[in-house]
Amino acid sequence: MISAIIPTIHQVELVQQCVGSFRATTFDLDSEIIVVDDGSSASVQEALILWARDNNVHLIAKPVNEGFSKAVNAGIAQARGDYILLSNNDIVFQQPGWLNYMIDTMLQDSRIGIVGARLLYANQTIQHGGVVPSLRGNFDHRYRFQPADYPPALAVEDAHAVTGALMLISRALIEEIGPLSEQYFIAYEDVDYCYRAKKHGYRVVYCGTAQAVHLEGYTRGTTKLNKNRYWRYKELEARKLFWSTWREEQL
Q1: pTM of the model
Q2: What is the C-alpha separation between 217 and 223, in angstroms, rounded?
Q3: What digits encode the pLDDT tens for the residues 100-122?
Q4: What count of other Cβ atoms lies within 10 Å of the Cβ of residue 26?
Q5: How high is the pLDDT of residue 134?
Q6: Is 221 exposed, middle or buried (0-12, 13-18, 19+ CB in 10 A)?
Q7: Terminal Cα-to-Cα distance of the chain (whole angstroms)
């Protein structure tokens, strides 16, 4: 079984779109869907509760906003699957079999603990083809803005890291190293988890044959002007924490 965990805040229709597209493209797989609302308003949570009840979705409605890692971990704590799939609420699945490709990649080697996917912008250019360090002291996505079928982005290969926007995690990895670090409120928790996995001898693999659309920034924003000021502060805090933890590591 695959447990799909979708953390969300301040959204109803975006979550519904994500879940609907997930089911339309993974109907041949045994799965459960866990949506974790991270402290939205009462009206948003009430709408999600009614929708979840009618659509066989397990909803966890948290009373306060505690950040991405805690939301994901609340879902992991109740997940029953052999694999945990993390999906942002702004992911739209269009490719039949995308999850089969990710699972097949995971099954190639028992030491593969994390598998990422090729993510596209709505205009069908690449948003994510793996995560790499940048010269500015943070991280960026490989192949950003290249055409969707850019040949290097179609590879299946070991990666420096992959984004938590769409990440398949083995149950074995979680049992060995635990869930996401809750020291990160928002940002860097996914790269930190990839680094932790690699430090424990697991492989992190980018699966370019699996594809989805990422409507990047619909929840968090994309610039200093449209991001929640508190979330922007927590991102900078996470960056400092990450580098203080990993600067000396060679992975």
Answers
A1: 0.93
A2: 9
A3: 999 999 999 999 999 999 999 99
A4: 20
A5: 80
A6: middle
A7: 31
